[in-house]
Write a structure and sequence with these properties.
The structure is a single chain. The protein has about 80 residues and is mainly alpha-helical. It has one domain. It is built from three helices and no strands. It is elongated and about 50 Å long. The chain starts with 6 loop residues before the first helix and ends with a helix.
């Protein structure tokens, strides 16, 4: 399995983007990136916990993942 799209890579990309924006003196846009990223990192596990949706059971699992499932992960990860 790959870590592409995981929290570590996401944090690194957002950190690089924030530093780039700060170098360009785009303070408001850098603040927006930080606030939306932190919001997504907080909102995603919170919503998973509140919804409590179990992961689907399939005959031949491709991979296993811990925790609850939440079908709308991509929009929050992309914000």
């Amino acid at each position: 399995m790959t870590d592409f799209g995981g929290h570590t890579l996401l944090v690194r990309v957002l950190l690089l983007a924030t530093v780039y924006l700060l170098i360009r003196r785009e303070y408001r846009l850098a603040a927006y990136v930080v606030v939306t990223a932190l919001g997504a990192l907080i909102l995603d596990p919170t919503l998973k916990l509140l919804v409590g949706r179990l992961r689907p059971i399939v005959d031949v699992p491709v991979a296993a993942a811990p925790g609850h499932s939440f079908p709308a992960i991509m929009p929050s990860a992309l914000s």
